[in-house]
Amino acid sequence: MAKGAFKGGIHPHDRKAATADMPIAWAPVPEQLILPMSQHLGAPCVPTVEVGQHVVRGEIVGSVEAFISAPVHSPVDGLVKAIGPCLTAGGTRVTAVTIVPDAEQDLDAYRAVAADDSRGMVKAAGIVGMGGATFPTTVKLSPPADSPVNTVILNGCECEPFLTCDHRLMVESPERVVDGARKIAALVGASRVVICVEDNKPDAVEVLRSVAGDDVEVRSLPTRYPQGAEKQLIWSILEKEVPHGKLPAATGALVHNVATAVAIADAIDKGKPLTERVVTVTGAVARPGNYRVLLGTLVSDLLEYAGGTVGEVGRIIAGGPMTGPALASLDVPVAKGTSGIVVLAAEEAAPAVEDDQPCIRCGRCSEACPMFLQPYAIANHAARQDWNVADQYSPLDCIECGCCSYVCPTSRPLVQLIRLAKAAAMAKGVKL
Ligand code: SF4
Ligand code: SF4
């Protein structure tokens, strides 16, 4: 294994060419926005507005007093039309605030957040991990006292196939990315800042290096999925393993996504709340692109703006195809963690064989697993609901990257079975 290279991983075709050169463009203001009160890990927000109330862009519409949470703001000036349950991309039903935008909108204006310090500004702006993790950012900016952070790693790898939203952000706003990285380092007292980009994005590496000073390293890493996973990235840069059951901060590293870094810079400098994000819309659509989308825009509206789907659709995914959920409905809103809408054509979505077949013990899943697990063993015991034995193979260490399912020649639903084993282990109180 090459120095700094993580174990396992795969090389799927990156499928990024359709949107890699597409500049970020605003998607239109839709007829209504549906804002889930839970767009983050942690305590769901409680609506702070009433039906019939007029709100302005940037005004809080949902919040809760909890350390692990993030407030939700209105992305538009508009009228609260409804408060009630909505379906999310992940398939859950949560409370949501529906807003009908006013006819006239000035998207350059917003109600700025206010707080006593930078960390408070990030919390007030409702920022969460925008790479898909959706963990409230303020919590990550407050590492335990016994785990000081000395290295900030900015994740610009964007290792998921199809997605190019982070790529475009780095190419178009390199100063904001670097500024965000410096602000994170200042907040946690880190002396080293490394921005990581896979080597299939040389233009991003070049432009970032052109604006980064001596205090910010820009590293080009081999293109290999899941290069951008937190533990794999820490290994690639520091050659340190996150200890079993510990937070990444235990290695002295803190990892943030590049889009999150830009949101942090905007919150601290401009008081800007998180009300929109860049979403890659690609695959079997008429006009693939990178769109700046108001949070709460329905996937159906976004796809319509992208010209609609083309040909026979097999599956539509929120996020990247390796980890994103397949959508059961298009009437789900774009949320803080929605990095992409990927439309897979019928022939792409079809499994290699009609149905999954028994495991032939070829071992490919173990070779591909970047977490040193034996996916076939966890999955085979989970399939028999033999949870106690499945626990012995550490299912809670699985990062659900999907590498095992990708390489399995018999199309075993490995990740799905491992998720069942994880749920069973957590229900029993098994600790990492
Ligand atoms: S077992 Fe989990 S971590 Fe390992 S390859 Fe499969 S999904 Fe990834
Ligand atoms: S890759 Fe599939 S067939 Fe091969 S050992 Fe793993 S589960 Fe079994």
Structural notes for this entry:
This protein is α/β, with parallel strands linked by helices and 432 residues long. It has three domains: 25-111 and 273-348, Ubiquitin-like (UB roll); 115-270, Rossmann fold; 364-427, no CATH class. The chain has helices at residues 17-20, 118-124, 137-140, 165-172, 174-188, 202-211, 230-238, 258-270, 299-305, 346-349, 364-368, 375-383, 387-391, 403-407, 414-427; strands at residues 25-26, 33-36, 46-47, 54-55, 60-63, 72-73, 78-87, 93-101, 151-156, 192-198, 216-221, 253-257, 276-283, 289-294, 313-318, 340-345. The strands form four sheets. A five-stranded mixed beta sheet has the order 1-14-13-16-15, sandwiched between helices. A four-stranded antiparallel beta sheet has the order 2-8-7-4, with no helix packed on it. One iron/sulfur cluster is lined by residues 368-369, 371, 373, 375, 398-404, 414-415, 418.
Summed up, the helix count is 15
Tell me what portion of residues adopts beta-strand conformation. 15-25%
The whole-angstrom Rg is: 21 Å
| Heterogens | iron/sulfur cluster
Spatial separation of the terminal alpha carbons:
27 Å
CATH level-two architecture of the largest domain: Roll
Total beta strands: 16
Q: What is the general shape? A: globular
Key terms:
single chain, 432 residues, alpha/beta, Rossmann fold, 5-stranded mixed beta sheet, 4-stranded antiparallel beta sheet, 16 strands, 20% strand, globular, binds iron/sulfur cluster
